[in-house]
Amino acid sequence: MPAAHVARVRALYRRLLLLHRALPPDLKALGDQYVKDEFRRHKAVGADEARRFLQEWEAYAAVLSQQANENSQNSTEKACFGAVLPEEKLNDFRDEQIGQLQELMQEATKPNRQFSISESNKPKC
């Protein structure tokens, strides 16, 4: 793997963990663990999959950064994080990815969490 690629991956990894500091504690812990697991899982993938992987995580980082900025500017309102997952995108997932998404949802919706996930088209704030 070229040194520039390794540096890009490391910078993105660090950026994601820094962005997670804006999340509520339970969501931060869940997000941090998921990032660590996913980056570890994708260490030895092919070039095409690595490119798609980085594109998706960079898009996530951009959305999270925007939401964190909006939430910090609206300090009187409840913080809102999340995005709708379009059905077209969900249809592109492999069975393994669907399973991971289900596990993530189950973990995120356990009792006593500071956030909730709903079936609506809008993130729940």
TrEMBL record:
Q: Which InterPro entries match?
A: SDHAF3/Sdh7 (IPR008381)
Where would one find coiled-coil regions in this protein? none
One of the record's GO cellular component terms = mitochondrial matrix
Tell me the superkingdom of the source. Eukaryota
Cellular localisation: Mitochondrion matrix
Q: Which GO terms describe its biological process?
A: mitochondrial respiratory chain complex II assembly; succinate metabolic process
Query: Where is it chiefly localized?
Result: mitochondrion
Q: Keyword set for this entry?
A: Chaperone, Mitochondrion, Transit peptide
Question: Of which family is this protein a member?
Answer: Belongs to the complex I LYR family. SDHAF3 subfamily.
- PANTHER family, per this entry? DC11 ACN9 HOMOLOG, SUCCINATE DEHYDROGENASE ASSEMBLY FACTOR 3, MITOCHONDRIAL
Q: How does it assemble?
A: Interacts with the iron-sulfur protein subunit within the SDH catalytic dimer.
**What biological function has been recorded for the protein in this entry?**
Plays an essential role in the assembly of succinate dehydrogenase (SDH), an enzyme complex (also referred to as respiratory complex II) that is a component of both the tricarboxylic acid (TCA) cycle and the mitochondrial electron transport chain, and which couples the oxidation of succinate to fumarate with the reduction of ubiquinone (coenzyme Q) to ubiquinol. Promotes maturation of the iron-sulfur protein subunit of the SDH catalytic dimer, protecting it from the deleterious effects of oxidants. May act together with SDHAF1.
- State the protein's name: Succinate dehydrogenase assembly factor 3
